[in-house]
Amino acid sequence: MIFGIDLDGVVYKWSETAKFMLEDEFGIEVPDQTCWGTWDRELSKEHWEWLWTDGIKQGLFRHGHIYKGSIEAMNELAKMGDIMIITNRPKASHPDTLDWLAFHKVPASRVIMLGPGANKADVLPHCDMYVDDKVTNCNQLADDTDGQILLWERPWSFATDEKLSPSVSVVHNWGQVLNHAAWLTSDMTEYDVGGPLRVICVGNAAGCTHGIFDVNRDKNE
């Protein structure tokens, strides 16, 4: 079982990091991303180019925070299969990316860094499940692979007038991701006990192997 996990917008707080660096460097107010491509249109050429040159040198891909619950969840995923990090990042960011993953002890078996606009479905072997925050990527993966595709919905996930493939599932927290993974890896019985928790039993009810996941614990964190 292979899980293909995106970094930016799923594990790494890229948008928050970029916004902080731009505001600190230029003393400007950077708008929140409300759809994919917001900053391409609303930032000046000078600021956008700085972000991808000096911004990278100053730690755009090294000093950002991690979304709450990411390491704990990926450690659970690593018990069910192999984690393949698949992310679109420029070549200049590769050393910082690897250092960041090592510092946070991300349990990845492979790290794939693609150039801008590359189709993640071209990465072989295909994964059994993918998690990504970009609708375009999810639609390509749904068309070109047999994996289960999860869109981690963020305010910027959709480009203007973009539609999501009906075969893609939407998630908002790591608990939901883990539940999808558990369904893929084993026969599973799910018990709704009410409140914020669901009890997830893999196999027979007497032998739960993947525990209890709180699907509301880190919503939108």
Describe the SSE topology.
Layout (H helix, E strand, L loop, with lengths): L1 E4 L8 H13 L11 H5 L2 H7 L2 H4 L12 H11 L1 E7 L5 H10 L6 E5 L14 E4 L2 H10 L3 E5 L16 E3 L2 H12 L2 E5 L4 E6 L9 E3 L7
Parallel strand pairs: 1-2, 1-4, 2-3, 4-5, 5-6
Antiparallel strand pairs: 7-8, 8-9
Summary, kept brief:
With 221 residues, the protein is of the alpha/beta class.
Give an overview in words:
The chain is built from 8 helices and 9 strands. The chain has helices at 14-26, 38-42, 45-51, 54-57, 70-80, 94-103, 135-144, 174-185, and strands at 2-5, 82-88, 110-114, 129-132, 148-152, 169-171, 188-192, 197-202, 212-214. The protein has a 6-stranded parallel β-sheet, sandwiched between helices. The protein has a 3-stranded antiparallel β-sheet with strand order 7-8-9, with helices on one face. The protein starts with a strand and ends in a 7-residue tail after the last strand. The protein folds into 2 domains: 2-11 and 68-186, HAD superfamily/HAD-like (Rossmann fold, 3-Layer(aba) Sandwich); 15-57, no CATH class. Residues 187-221 have low confidence and may be disordered.
Q: What is the CATH class name of the largest domain? A: Alpha Beta
Radius of gyration based on Cα positions: 18 Å
Low-confidence stretches: 187-221
- Span between termini: 27 Å
Quaternary assembly: single chain
Features:
alpha/beta; 6-stranded parallel beta sheet; 3-stranded antiparallel beta sheet; 33% helix; globular
